[in-house]
Amino acid sequence: MKATLPITVLVMVLVGFALSSSVALAGREQDASETGRLLAILLDSGRVTVGANQALINDATKGDKGFTPAVFEKQLVEKFKERSGVDLANLKAANVPEMAKKLLPQLVEASKQTVAENQSIINKQGVGFKGFIPATFGTQAAAKFSAKAGIYLKQTTHDGLLRNPANKADEFEAGVLKKFADPAYPRQGEKIISEAAEGGKMLRVMLPLFYGKGCLTCHGEPKGEKDISGYNKEGAKEGDLGGAISVKLPLK
After folding, report:
1. Taking CA atoms, which of 20, 41, 63, 172 is between 20 and 30 Å from 192?
2. Model's pTM, two decimal places?
3. How many other CB atoms sit within 10 Å of the CB of residue 144?
């Protein structure tokens, strides 16, 4: 005769399995959430780095600006460490998920490639506004990373602020953007919203982007006036929501 487990023992085994599965899933969600947060901070750090060099990039009197991929990378690493506490130069020793250790270098490379491919534009003498701005960088770098890594990453905003159709928010993103727009949502720190999606197969992560002083040159007052890029200014004020970085990562 085959030995059978008592009902109470069988129930305990099944409960233990369920608990361990829940703990494992929670661990995966936590790792994916932190990885998404770091990817979003890194993409935005690249945007901020381009913005910090905007006057140089738009200087019509200079040819070679010296804003090479290597110079960009150095500034990017410094900005990212300042915001996240993670040193990309010593990523192996960093206390971050293994998923992040794999994906962050790929985003750095995609970001450097974006700067490299725009060198002829950046270094064009006799032309002021080149069109290579934080938003342009963000769109291009995110697309390169997504194509190479197979990970959904983009900068997005709601229709009222949308300039590039490629950045149009999907239903989930539009809903989270409404939460970010709430004046009570923290304007300081790297606060994200993350949520499981597609039956628990994916995790959606979004990091808000609030307008800083440098953004108001194109997005501030007076509302309706043409900015340097030819778009109408939105009349935004410092601290207003400008959009978000959106990431989607696998949980299984």
Report:
1. 20
2. 0.88
3. 20
**Residue at 180 is within a domain:** yes
189 within domain boundaries: yes
pLDDT per position as a tens digit, 23-61: 554 789 999 999 999 999 999 999 999 999 999 999 999
Does 2 reside within a domain?
no
Q: Is residue 1 part of a domain?
A: no
d(CA 200, CA 179): 22
Mean of pLDDT over the chain: 90
Q: How many domains does the chain have?
A: 1
- 77-104 pLDDT, tens digit per residue, is 999 999 999 999 999 999 999 999 999 9
